[in-house]
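ok here's Bacterial SCP orthologue domain-containing protein:
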Amino acid sequence: MAPSKPVDPAELRSALQTVSPWLDDPDLPKPPRADLAAAVRLSARTIEQTAPGSSVEVRVPPFVAVQCIVGPRHTRGTPPNVVECDPRTWLLLVTGRVAFEDAVRGAGVTASGGRAGEVAHWLPLVRI
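and the structure:
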């Protein structure tokens, strides 16, 4: 698979700022799907590019799944190291509003495999 185009940091920041009020107050209406998808996809592609590799799969359904972190490559079936969460939890992690360990303890993140926790080293991506 060809590498994706590098994420423009200004585009990522703008996408995150668009959904930021909802991250601060979950009682606000959920952002439009296109805005939420942009923030999730750009941030996931950013972690894919800043922590290149394919030993951990980060899943944020229904928007994206990326592989990151240097290590043994996964090629078929269920990956041995998976981090999965909903879009809001992912964006809370990305923006530093919640720590990875707290999200795992609070059941907002499912982290399986011995290397899944290494994603925490790369978060937050942008503090907003």
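+1. The chain has a mean pLDDT of 93.
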